[in-house]
Each structure stands twice: as structure tokens, then as C-alpha cells.
Amino acid sequence: LQISGYLNLLANTIDNFTHGLAVAASFLVSRKVGFLTTMAILLHEIPHEVGDFAILLRAGFDRWSAAKMQLSTALGGILGACFAICAQSPKGAGETVTWILPFTSGGFLYIALVNVVPDLLEEKNPWNSLQQILLLCTGIIVMVLLALT
């Protein structure tokens, strides 16, 4: 088995830990914010987990082992949620949310930009670049509209 498979599992566990932090902290804000955050993370996780599964297969894991290892990384999300809940201040959830949500959202923005910006800079076709930028802006507008409702 290649080391890349194990590194991917470690990265996926850390990623799932931050997702658990974000979901738990969002539910501490309100049910609406919690459900929106959960839906956003689920939509992100579906293609992400499929890609991670393919990485594990390419690294030499058989299908069953890759599936078990992928499932085991989900424990990171549970640990993250437990950490967020246990980190609540006796004064209320407000103090917990003030550091968890900026930490996790900043991490998500960083990862998104690290993945998207290099592709935009390498794109030769201006129409494709414009489409990608418009889709990014559409995503931002959808998030703002959901936050306002």
C-alpha cells in the first residue's frame, strides 16, 4: 500500500473533524443555520468521498478495505461535533460559536480557493473562466439568500 493512501485518510479525518465542528457550532446558533450547514457539507462530501475512495483504490487498497477506511474517517466528524459541544462555555453557546465558525469557514474558504484559483489561472479559454467565476458568484448569492430567509 502506498503512503499516499494513508496520508489521504489522515487528511480526510481532519477534514471530517472540521465538518463536525461546523455542524455542531451551527446548530448551537439555530436549527436553521445547523440544517443549512449540514446540507452544504453533505453536498460537498458526496463527490469528495467518491474521490477519496478512488485515491485509496489507486494507492493499493481493495474495495472493501477502502470502504471500511473511508467509513472510519467519519469518526473524525463525530469527534469534531463532540468537541464543539464540550467546548461550550458555561455562559452559553455564543462564546463557542465565536471561534469555531470563523475557524471552520476560513478553512473551507482557503481550501476552496486553493483548489479553484490555480485552475482559473491556467485556463486558456476566457469563456470557461467567466463561467467558473459566474458559478462561484451564483453560489455566494444562493448562500446570502438562504441566510436572509
From TrEMBL:
It is found in: Membrane. It is a multi-pass membrane protein. The chain crosses the membrane at residues 69-87, 99-117, 129-148. One of its GO terms (cellular component) is membrane. PANTHER family: ZINC TRANSPORTER SLC39A7 HISTIDINE-RICH MEMBRANE PROTEIN KE4, ZINC TRANSPORTER ZIP13. Belongs to the ZIP transporter (TC 2.A.5) family. This is Zinc transporter ZIP13. The lineage of its organism: Eukaryota, Metazoa, Chordata, Craniata, Vertebrata. The gene is Slc39a13.
